[in-house]
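In response to a reviewer's request, we include the raw inputs and outputs for one of the modeled complexes. The two entities were modeled together in a single run.
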Amino acid sequence: MDGLQANECELIARVRAGDEAAGRALYDAHVDRVFWLAYRMSGRHELAQDFTQDAFIRAFARLHEFRGEAAFGSWLHTIAVSVILNGLQKVKRFDQREAVLDEAVMVPLPTRHAEPDLKERLAKAIDALPDGCRTVFLLHDVEGYTHEEIGSAMGVTAGTSKAQLSRARARLRESLADFAGEWVHD
Amino acid sequence: MTDRPDWNDEPMDVRLRDLAKEYNRPGGVVPREAMWQAIAPAVRAAARTADVTPDIAPSTTRKRRHIAPYAWSAALAAGLVLGIMLEREVIAPHAGSPDAGTLPVTDSRQVATSTPIPANAGPATTVPAPEATRVAAASRQAEQATTSSTRARDGRAPSGRGATSVDADAGRNATDTQQLYRLAARQTLVQAEALLTAYRASDDQPRDQESMQQAGRWARDVLTSTRLLLDSPAGNDPQMRALFTDLELVLAQIVQLSGAPLHAGERELIERAMRDRDLLPRLRSALPAGATTE
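The model returned the following structure tokens for the whole complex.
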């Protein structure tokens, strides 16, 4: 157990003993990473805030279950990923249900004629990935999670996570195939 | 935290991975303090949870299995139920006092019906007592309910009590949990009804940025409670679940659009969402007489 982990164990013990300042210290140590993960996954500041709050509330409510077998950060991030995925499903359902209203009420945005640049195309391609593939791609290739961590957070096996990642990469390559020549010659 | 790099070495794949780091790239300021306001009560509840769990079960697996429902009760107590305790511990004792009219439910009625959200009066006047007060009140009730519940599940009756007594405790505490949920649901519905009524009553009122943000914060609080109730295993009443799902959609819309003064189209969007779902009538019919703002 390294110094950081030992310090966190001490903080956790203090939180359990009723020390709110220790809770704040734990929160300060991890909130940025959780928030930015939520932002990366949702792309919306207010959603990232909601998800981060929910993740910490759940983590503190379940703190008595934390056995110290893994780093607190890993345990917290597993909760956070689960909260984010559940939240995104609800948001998606909301967006779908409101889409009809949007079409009926909102003035349509002017159509873009300019060819979007590569970043924009990639962002759209990532958005268009199936939920599972998108999540695994972002967690693994962008955020650096292991397949075991992803599997644990998503309730799937590490093998499933690997398969989803492979599928995600293939889809992205396919979506951006017309840029491939450029990259080879970079 | 990272696996062995197994991304193909093709230039396209490498470039894609690098570019993907720009996707929703983090930036700006993390709203630490705002989030902490909502999280701090959970920290206090965690301490109370820890007080009663060490002797419940020796193994991690067993503890996980048996404590999960307890955690739900604690979460309910910490984040949601409290408001209900207002009725028992705050509103009721003050019912006959001169200050009774300024308490939450009554106050929200005043705001919603006779004074449609003025430009500088935010929802603070209609939001219940501070979170800390609410948490303290509800957690006492949750502790009583869940402590005896976990004892009953583990077959550990207090000394001098037999199996029959344990069974009775288990049944009683299942009822307690359901009751806590109902109380939490009721308080959330009261808040939601007051919020939506006030929102509708504020038609055509000029709203400044601050009041919009206050309304947004209020809606966010109610939205958080609604989502927790939706996720609660105690929330298995299909009718209530449908109501909370619709409520969640409308609240999310209000939260999403609360950053700036609403355009007519945006307001109409929210109005239609409420109208199409009969949200206010359903909220009111779900609440006991006297608890609504109409």
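As requested, we also summarize the result in words. Chain A touches chain B through 73 residues (CB under 8 Å). Chain A has two domains: 1-108, 112-179.
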